[in-house]
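Listing S7. Sequence submitted for prediction.
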Amino acid sequence: MDMNAAFPSENLKAADLQGQEATLTIERVTIETIGDDRRPVVHFQGMPQRLVLNKTNSNTICEIHGAESDYWTGRQITLYSTFTDYQGKQVACIRVKPVGVPATAQAPAFQGVQQPNFGAPPPVPQPGLVQNPPQFAGTPQHQDPTPPLPEAAPFDPFDP
């Protein structure tokens, strides 16, 4: 028996996604008391469960659709499950991403301590040479806009 099904919840959990991504349309956003906190809650069209936002997911939706949640209605987001550190343990969580964007690649498994590969050392700059002169938009090559100084007379310490 799937114990997640034995304890249904009105709030979405990572297990509810069953390892799949879900693209959903936001119906409305409310502020509700969850435990001792007041939290934003996203309700979706055609879905009884809702997503209680944490700071990470709230910031992601703000990046996608703007900071004003009144304008999120009718907009879509994609939910996916992943893992995060919580109180020293890896736990399943729900994350948000824009529609049509692939999930970020997983970091490779830890293979032990490895020496860094820096490759060949960088070339040693030569005195008086500009290795990579700066280029500015609209100019083919950087030119100093100040006029050259006039030739100065040689310095004579005995000339008053």
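Caption to Listing S7: primary sequence and predicted structure tokens for the chain studied. DSSP finds two helices and five strands in the chain. Residues 137 and 143 are 12 Å apart (CA to CA).
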